[in-house]
UniProtKB/TrEMBL annotation:
Biased composition (Low complexity): 1-29
Domain of life: Bacteria
Transmembrane regions listed in the UniProt entry: 38-59, 79-101, 122-145, 157-176, 188-206, 212-231, 243-262, 268-286, 320-343, 355-374, 395-413
Sequence ranges assigned to domain Acyltransferase in this UniProt record: 34-370
GO MF term list: acyltransferase activity, transferring groups other than amino-acyl groups
Organism per entry: Leucobacter luti
InterPro entries: Acyl_transf_3_dom
Protein name: Acyltransferase-like protein
Upper classification of the organism: Bacteria, Bacillati, Actinomycetota, Actinomycetes, Micrococcales
Chain segments carrying region Disordered: 1-31
Keywords recorded for this protein, A-Z: Acyltransferase, Membrane, Transferase, Transmembrane, Transmembrane helix
C-alpha cells in the first residue's frame, strides 16, 4: 500500500554500516533504496489491477448490477494469499517514515511539525479526488440516474479510502513509535503484538466483530514497526517466516481469522501482522536481486514515474475504473455492445479481462497525467519551509489535522459512500489541509521561517509516503 512515493535520491554518506540480517551494507545517509522503490511501485500496480478486476458491471433481468466480481470466484481465497500486499505496503511505509524522520531530526524538526509536513504531502491529492467524486455523483443524481446505482458507485469508489485514514493515523504515531523502537525495539513490537492478540481474542470470545476495529490501529502500527526494523537493516529469517506462516494457518484453522486474506482486512486480524513478517523476510531474501533489477535504466524510469505520482494513482484509480465501467454500461445500447458487459466470472468475462486491464491501465495513466500535476508541482511553503523551526506547527494543530483528515475518511466509509458523506468528508479533509498549512503561521513566524530558509539554503523536497 505504501502507496506513496519514497524519499528523494541523494548521495550516500561517506561511512557505511552493516545492516544485520538483510545481509547488505547500507549508507546511513542514503535516502532511497532501489529495491524498496521497485517493490512499492510493483505493489501499487498490483493494487490497481486487483481493484480493476473486482469491478463487475452487468445487466440482468433486475437491471444494472455493480458488484465485486471476485467475491463469488472459487479461487478468490488462494488468490488472496499471494495478492494481499497491504502488510508489505505498511512495512515499506515504515521504512520510508523512519528514514525521513531521522533525516528531518537533523534539521531540528520536532514531532508535531513532522506530522504536519506529512499531512501536507498526503492529503491534497486525495482531497482533489474526493471533490471530483462528490461533483460527479451529484451530477449523476441530478441527471436522474437510479439512486441505488449512484449510491453503489459512491460505495465502490470509497472502499480503498480506508488505507488513507489508517495511514494518516499511523503517520501521527511515527515520532512516538520510532522513539519506542530506538529505545527498546523488541519491547515495542511485543507490546503491539500483545495488543493485537488481545483484541482478536476478545472479538473471538465475545463474537462482537466491532471489537476488532481496534486492530485497524494496532495491526498496522505493528506492521509499520517492522518497517523501522528494515530501516535498521534487520529482518526476520526465513525460518521465522515459516513459523509466522504456520501461525497464519493456525489462526485460520481455529476460526480466529478468515481464510481469505482480503476479508481479513475488515477488521484486520493478527494473520495480517504475521503475513507482514513473511513478506518482510521474503523481501530481505530477494533484496539484492531486486536492487539489481531496479538499476536497469528502463525499470528505473518506470519505477520513478510510478512512485512520483503514487498518491495520484492511489486516489484516482478507483473513480477512473468505475467511470470506465459506467461508459461501457452507457454504450450497451449500441449494436454489439452487450458483449462488453458479460456476466462476471463467465467464460466471456475472463476472456475479456486482459483487454479490460489494458483499458483500465490506459485510463488511469491518462487521468494521472492530468491530475498528477497537483502531486508533482513545487510545494512552495508546504514543502520548502523548514518545518521544525520554532512556532511553525503546534502539537494541537497537528492533532487537529490528523483527526480531521482521518475523520473525513471515516465519515465517507461509515456512510457507505453516500453523496452527502463524500461532501462532508471532502470538507473535513480540506479542513485538515488548511489546519496544517504554513500559510497560517503568524507574521513573526513567517519572518523567522524565511530567515531560516535563507540561512540553510534550498530545502530538499520532502518524502512522500
Amino acid at each position: 500500500m505504501t502507496i506513496v512515493a519514497p524519499t528523494p535520491r541523494s548521495a550516500p554518506a561517506p561511512r557505511t554500516a552493516r545492516t544485520g540480517r538483510t545481509g547488505r551494507t547500507a549508507a546511513p545517509g542514503s535516502r532511497r533504496d532501489p529495491a524498496v522503490d521497485l517493490v512499492r511501485a510493483a505493489c501499487l500496480v498490483a493494487v490497481v489491477a486487483v481493484h480493476a478486476l473486482m469491478v463487475g458491471v452487468s445487466v440482468t433481468g433486475d437491471g444494472v448490477v455493480l458488484e465485486n466480481a471476485l467475491e463469488a470466484w472459487d479461487l478468490f481465497t488462494p488468490f488472496s494469499w499471494v495478492a494481499q500486499m497491504m502488510p508489505l505496503f505498511f512495512i515499506l511505509g515504515g521504512f520510508a517514515s523512519a528514514t525521513h524522520l531521522r533525516r528531518e531530526r537533523g534539521r531540528g524538526v520536532r514531532g508535531p511539525e513532522y506530522v504536519a509536513l506529512r499531512l501536507r504531502r498526503l492529503l491534497p491529492v486525495p482531497l482533489a479526488a474526493a471533490v471530483a467524486t462528490t461533483v460527479a455523483l451529484a451530477v449523476l443524481a441530478a441527471a436522474g440516474l437510479d439512486p441505488e446505482l449512484v449510491a453503489e458507485a459512491g460505495w465502490r469508489i470509497s472502499q480503498p479510502l480506508w488505507f488513507l485514514g489508517v495511514y494518516v493515523l499511523c503517520t501521527a504515531f511515527v515520532p512516538l513509535a520510532l522513539r519506542a523502537h530506538e529505545r527498546a525495539p523488541r519491547r515495542a513490537v511485543a507490546a503491539l503484538g500483545a495488543a493485537v492478540l488481545a483484541v482478536d481474542a476478545i472479538r473471538w470470545v465475545s463474537g462482537v466483530d466491532a471489537v476488532g476495529c481496534a486492530n485497524l490501529l494496532f495491526v498496522w502500527l505493528l506492521v509499520q514497526q517492522l518497517g523501522f526494523w528494515l530501516a535498521d537493516g534487520r529482518a526476520p529469517s526465513l525460518r521465522q517466516a515459516a513459523w509466522a506462516a504456520a501461525g497464519i494457518a493456525g489462526l485460520i484453522v481455529v476460526g480466529a481469522s478468515p481464510a481469505n486474506l482480503f476479508e481479513a482486512l475488515n477488521p484486520p486480524t493478527a494473520a495480517l501482522a504475521l503475513l507482514g513478517v513473511v513478506q518482510l523476510a521474503a523481501f530481505a531474501a530477494l533484496r539484492h536481486r531486486l536492487a539489481a533489477r531496479a538499476g536497469l535504466p528502463r525499470v528505473r524510469r518506470a519505477v520513478d514515474a510510478i512512485n512520483g505520482t503514487a498518491m495520484t494513482i492511489y486516489s484516482w484509480h478507483m473513480p477512473v475504473v468505475v467511470l470506465l465501467a459506467g461508459l461501457l454500461l452507457a454504450a450497451q445500447s449500441a449494436p454489439g455492445a452487450a458483449a462488453l458487459l458479460p456476466a462476471p466470472l463467465s467464460g466471456d468475462w475472463w476472456l475479456g479481462r486482459p483487454a479490460w486491464l489494458v483499458a483500465a491501465g490506459v485510463a488511469v495513466t491518462l487521468a494521472v497525467s492530468v491530475a498528477g500535476r497537483i502531486e508533482r508541482r513545487p510545494r512552495g511553503a508546504a514543502g520548502s519551509v523548514p518545518a521544525g523551526r520554532p512556532g511553525a506547527v503546534s502539537a494541537r494543530r497537528a492533532a487537529l489535522g490528523v483527526l480531521s483528515g482521518a475523520g473525513g475518511v471515516l465519515v465517507i466509509l461509515t456512510a457507505t459512500g453516500a453523496l452527502w458523506a463524500w461532501a462532508l468528508g471532502a470538507a473535513l479533509i480540506a479542513a485538515a489541509v488548511w489546519t496544517v498549512s504554513p500559510a497560517r503561521l503568524r507574521p513573526a513566524d513567517q519572518i523567522a521561517v524565511a530567515g531560516a530558509v535563507a540561512a540553510t539554503g534550498p530545502a530538499t523536497r520532502p518524502a512522500r509516503g
